[in-house]
Fold this sequence. Notes:
The protein is an alpha/beta fold. The protein has three domains: 42 residues, no CATH class; 177 residues, no CATH class; 139 residues, Rossmann fold (3-Layer(aba) Sandwich). The strands form five sheets. Strands 2, 5, 6, 8, 9, 10 and 11 form a seven-stranded mixed beta sheet that branches. A five-stranded parallel beta sheet has the order 15-14-16-17-18, sandwiched between helices. A two-stranded parallel ribbon has the order 1-7. The longest helix has 15 residues.
Amino acid sequence: MSLKNILKKIGLFRVIFRVLYRSGIKYKLRQPIINLLKISGMQVVNRKELQNRYPFYFQEGDEILSLKKNDGMNHERFREVEGLVFAKPFVVNIQKGEIAGKDATGFDCQGRVILETTLPQFTNDHLATSVSLRTILFKKLYPCTRRETVFSLVCLWDNNYHHWLIDCLTRLEGVMEYERKFGVKIKLLIRKNLRQYQIDSLRLLGYREEDCEEWNGQRMLANNLLVSSFRRSVQEENGFYRYVSTDACRWLGETIVNNLPEDVKKKTTPTHIYISRRNTLVRKVVNEQEVIHELGKLGFVDYILEDMSFAEQVHLFANAKMIVSPHGAGLTNIIFSKKLKLVELFGKTVPLASYYELCCGFGFEYNCLMGDSPPGDLRTLDADIVVDLDKLLDISKIV
């Protein structure tokens, strides 16, 4: 185990690492080198170029009719959108492709970085934030293996619960359709030492151990490198990704719920739940005991998602009618819900609209409560939360 991983097991150092990560200092130091590489001839393959390579479109595009703000959601992050259209999702076969580095960056036969194998592109400094310089500069020195047909689930954010579901697993819909259409078997590349929820989610999608191969973090040449498009909208003015496809999330949610083990499906779970983050380092509710006590009078039951198996979380959210929770990756589980009212809690911080957007796409009711934070907590995205009980109870009774 590396010194970095040892230090991350200590709470104080985990906080420090998170603050440094949020600052983006690592990527700011990379950017000048990336700029020099571009000047010296480094090229990339973007989505438009992939679509010129005879892609397999496996369904029509989908649409979110509108994203509507409720009263009190005045922050600029909660944007209203009308008629948001998603392009047709696709799979492209890159012949004589290459994968290299610990995050399995894809390259075509000309050595160009395939952006659709990295992360959804959110900013201009995408390469600096998503591709290792070591991979770009030294990949030809890595030991090399060869495979026939592969698709990689490995990426920089694959160990994040939200991005694993939203940006990794949703891409498997295209891979499965490609297998059915062309009668081929595709080897799925996964990272070593997956977390239990990742293993369980793959099983619930029908993947067995023999369908997968652990990525060795070095270099692989593939006669057929499959690239499945990210299921996000692309803004025409800058080419950046943003909103998540409701159709893709619905496919993932329904497939996993339908494949739950019978013993899990038979369990009775409450319809009104409160999600606690008291075992985490960030965005904890400071006055949580009072919150739980007051919500309990309205029939809410509190849960810590880290104490539950993946299947249990899926079943809990599938049966939930109303959820109150601080902002956190566990709320991605709303894709397993059928009809839901969500109240999301924020501290004195910059809110993220990820679950507002998902709720709007699914037609769920959404409210957020902007609270306060303890004095001296200056974290812009991770500050702890002091909940205004009167406001929370008003929303919880009305919503």
